[in-house]
Specification:
There is one protein chain. The protein is about 40% helix and about 20% strand. The protein contains 14 helices and twelve strands. The strands form three sheets. Strands 6-9-10-3-11-12 form a six-stranded mixed sheet, with helices on both faces. It has a four-stranded antiparallel sheet with strand order 2-1-4-5, covered by helices on one side. A two-stranded antiparallel ribbon has the order 7-8. Strand 9, helix 11 and strand 10 form a beta-alpha-beta unit. Helix 8 packs across helix 10.
């Protein structure tokens, strides 16, 4: 399970980077070959001595970097970080931009709602913020960390809940423990309760030991989604990135899940793509997107005016925005 999630979590379109614990010489060899990595044409003891010296220097630098990372992680634990996006553009296929010149400052602990019609770029923006795709240098920061260089770190502090729920074959407990391997039974139960999943889990005599078929096909779409919500919340990350978390559940379950989610989101920096008007009304900031751009921004009160794109999304939906 752990290896599978590491592969799935790897950022797309990345440049080769040094593997943790790998010397600079080994890293260079992996990219360019042994001769180029050594930087000399001589062989034997001289090359070995030079390599040993380089390795020692790299180890010292690595230790310093680890200490800095630990300090940064401690600081992150003290409170939720800010998110800064500066002139971000992104494309899956060269020449076809999906995000265009996105800029926004999200303060620590804020709730930001992404609004807009399907295909406007909401999901892509969430994936970039989650470190699943590597942005250009200097365009996306969590705290003061540039996600171009530290996409892996972003995935350690941000939990991303995609619109399509995914479960792995194994047991329910193993699926949940992917988020927190040392989670106690009470923690698992609490996360399931928040996601409105505890009842149907405990109704099965196997409970958390219940087998999960590949992709979770043994559960309904709503059950899969609630289990994935529980797994996301179990991590306790200071940043939550959520893409339409209740799209596959019935109205009654949706109300219960959102009530619990809003409680769990308190104090965290949250970016949510949602069609629910009541969530937008609670947001500290709404970003209205169209064709990959932010075309309007503000609170519900500021945006809900005649002639605005936001008001056209709200329309007469009776609690839901178009999208």
């Amino acid at each position: 399970f752990r290896r599978v999630t590491e592969v799935l979590d790897a950022p797309r379109d990345v440049d080769p980077v040094r593997v943790e614990g790998e010397s600079r010489r080994d890293s260079a060899e992996r990219r360019t070959g042994p001769a180029a990595a050594a930087g000399v044409t001589a062989s034997g003891d001289i090359a070995d001595a030079a390599a040993d010296a380089a390795d020692a220097a790299a180890d010292a630098a690595g230790a310093a970097a680890d200490a800095a990372d630990a300090a940064a992680d401690t600081a992150a634990d003290a409170g939720s970080p800010s998110i800064t996006v500066r002139d971000l553009s992104f494309e899956y296929v060269h020449g076809t931009p999906v995000l265009r010149e996105i800029s926004v400052e999200i303060p620590p602990g804020a709730l930001v709602v992404l609004a807009g019609k399907s295909g406007c770029g909401k999901s892509t923006l969430l994936k970039v913020l989650a470190g699943l795709y590597r942005p250009s240098p200097g365009t996306v920061f969590i705290g003061d960390r540039d996600l171009h260089y530290e996409a892996g770190w972003a995935r350690s502090v941000a939990s991303y809940l995609p619109q399509e729920p995914f479960l792995f074959s194994g047991s329910l407990r193993e699926n949940l423990e992917l988020a927190k391997p040392d989670a106690a039974g009470e923690e698992l139960r609490r996360a399931l309760a928040v996601a409105d999943a505890l009842d149907f889990v405990e109704r099965d005599e196997a409970g958390l030991g219940r087998d999960v078929s590949e992709r979770g096909s043994s559960f309904s779409g709503g059950e899969r989604q609630r289990l994935c919500i529980a797994r996301t919340l179990l991590r306790g990350s200071p940043v939550l990135l959520i893409d339409e978390p209740t799209s596959s559940v019935d109205r009654e379950s949706e109300e219960r899940i959102w009530s619990s989610l809003l409680s769990a989101m308190k104090g965290k920096t949250c970016v949510v793509a949602s069609h629910r008007l009541d969530i937008a009304e609670r947001a500290d900031l709404i970003l209205v997107m169209d064709q990959g751009r932010i075309v309007e921004r503000g609170t519900h009160e500021e945006l809900n005016k005649p002639g605005s794109v936001y008001m056209s999304l709200v329309g007469e939906g009776g609690g839901a925005m178009a999208g």
